Automatic annotation (TrEMBL):
This is Ribulose-phosphate 3-epimerase. CDD domains: RPE. Pathway: Carbohydrate degradation. It comes from the Bacteria. Its cofactor is Mn(2+); Co(2+); Fe(2+); Zn(2+). The lineage of its organism: Bacteria, Bacillati, Bacillota, Bacilli, Lactobacillales. Belongs to the ribulose-phosphate 3-epimerase family. It comes from Lacticaseibacillus manihotivorans DSM 13343 = JCM 12514. Gene3D superfamilies: Aldolase class I.
Length: 214
């Protein structure tokens, strides 16, 4: 399982230092949470942060778009240097168009499901996807508690992927620590995002605990 530290819990006044800390400690991806104050009740970063991060790290940028009207933002975040864009199915009536748009802009296409959105929302989309992100908290804030029922959702998605012979990556986001990390690993997750667990302590030590699970 790959580990993607989320910079939402980093020290924003020392962002370069906090990115390099996790890169040097062997992080696999950098997770960047984009919140627009509309789709979720919080504001975080715009494309300028992604373009500022691009030259200071070799980590793939995994950009989680918690925004309304994602079709407007996809070109801007692709141009800013995202490697993967992750769009919520709840954010647009035209999710298939958003997936086509991500591929047309040369980035990996991911879709995200809120905890209350069933896997059936993915049925027509799965063959087009590079990544599926299962939210394990309700999006909008770091430091929330993992929702245990999401483990079974991950397991059912992994089973469906195998049955269909597909290869998209399964990612989880929210409330990941050493205990819940083991639960999602056993359920079949390929990528685990961790924000507060990594940054509310010594990032290298915290990351090592998650890396030891795999
Ligand atoms: O998308 C997110 C919140 O909407 C964050 O990626 C997620 O919450 C990470 O934070 P933590 O590991 O502290 O739960
Ligand atoms: Fe996220």
């Amino acid at each position: 399982m790959k580990i993607a530290p989320s910079i939402l819990s980093a020290d924003f006044a020392n962002l370069q230092r906090d990115v390099q800390l996790v890169e040097n400690a062997g992080a696999d991806l950098l997770h960047v949470d984009i919140m627009d104050g509309h789709f979720v009740p919080n504001l975080s970063f715009g494309p300028g942060i992604v373009s500022a991060l691009r030259p200071i790290t070799n980590l793939p940028l995994d950009v989680h778009l918690m925004v309304s009207d994602p079709e407007f933002w996809i070109p801007l975040f692709a141009q800013a240097g995202a490697d993967t864009l992750l769009v919520h199915v709840e954010a647009t009536p035209h999710i298939m168009r958003a997936i086509q748009q991500m591929h047309a802009h040369g980035v990996k296409a991911g879709v995200v499901l809120n905890p209350g959105t069933p896997l059936s929302a993915l049925e027509e989309l799965l063959p087009m996807l590079d990544q599926v992100l299962i939210m394990t908290v309700n999006p909008g804030f770091g430091g929330q508690q993992f929702l245990p029922a999401m483990a079974d959702k991950v397991a059912r998605l992994a089973k469906a992927r195998e049955a269909l012979g597909l290869h998209f990556a399964i990612e989880v986001d929210g409330g990941i620590n050493a205990k819940t990390g083991k639960i999602v690993l056993d359920a079949g997750a390929d990528i685990a995002v961790a924000g507060s667990y990594v940054y509310n302590g010594d990032p290298a030590t915290q990351l090592a605990t998650l890396q030891a699970l795999r």
